Amino acid sequence: MNPTGILGAAWLAYRRDLLLALRHWGQVAQPLIFFVMITTLFPLALDPELAELRRIAAGILWVAALLASLLGLELLFRSDHADGTLEQMLLCGQPLTILALAKGLAHWTVCGLPIVLLTPFVATGIGVPFEAVGTAMKSLALGTGILSALGAIGSALTLGLRRGSLLLGLLVLPLAMPALIFGARAIDLSIHGDSARGPLLLLAAMLVLALTLAPPAVAAALRISAE
Amino acid sequence: MWRGERQVLAGVSLSVAAGECVHVLGANGSGKTTLLRVIAGLLTPEQGTVEWGGQATRKRRDEWFATIGYLAHSDALKPELTARENLAFDVGLRRRIHDQEIGAALGEVGLAHAQNQPAGFLSAGQRRRLAMARVTLAAAPFWILDEPYTNLDSAGAALVAGLLGRHLDAGGAALVAAHQPPTIPHHVPRRVELPS
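Output (structure tokens, whole complex):
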């Protein structure tokens, strides 16, 4: 028998989740539609004065991205738990931390990355100047990564619970507050022509911390949920 | 083990030797599935140990997981993926596998014609056969099978019995929880009955 290496197993787990997302594109599109709807509804509900919109644009972008990410998180492990594939993953002999990391990365690819790619279109629609769009994309790229990592912990902890989605929000949202504050601040600074380097570096540090701590926490939570 | 306020599996002890099949039977709720999940390592018992080759399996968990092929109550298949894709991903996590091996395993369980069909379109019996193909492809010396005959017709049951027989002939071992005793060519399973 030629055992699969850790990276090979991670690649398989990542590829499988992408394939499943592709075949379930309706579910995947839901958070993105939500993100676009929130950001386009704000100018209609508020005073469409550009200066006014520009003042709250960073907050709109970040809150919309945060809530859109939450929508997709519930699905991260739920179907694996329901159809029994989670048990097979636990018994495959590969480190669960690596598989959890691969699944989190797949979640970011289908949920976080499209949000980042949509940002230039929705950001300019709510008055973000062209020069600040790059910062907005960087801020949301780092931020959605943090949200995927934190959300994976919440998703694993609430597996098998009734009304798990409500609990997921209660668990993840407080943890995501620092990312929200610094992410929105980075965009705001950039809108006003200031350097956003400080908040972006803080976000990057938070992402590194989340990527280091989340996979073992997710693995432990999955083991508990499987019992 | 406790299930709510009821204790199951108190004082249960069993061993399985190479080339042997142990048939676990008992009334509904006697703890057959719980026993299999404890042995597989999916549940942690309050007391007692599971040993393989004289060593506790919890101390070398990854090695133990590579030793077992586990068929649960659920078929653990992704309905959106084809039969072939399900096997490629599930078995691929354990070992490197070639397309020909998957094709041969699907042929063996009578699903060659359905290899590119999504698992969600297969019948319950066909999904059970597909789950059984995953166990055979795992190349594990110890099979843990929970109700392997569920949803299978007589041909399917004979197929599982044949696969079990070949596994035991090759020196493998098996623990089977089922209400009916498995009929395995050239082998007589040892019965272990759980108290109700």
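The first strand of chain B starts at residue 2 and ends at 3.
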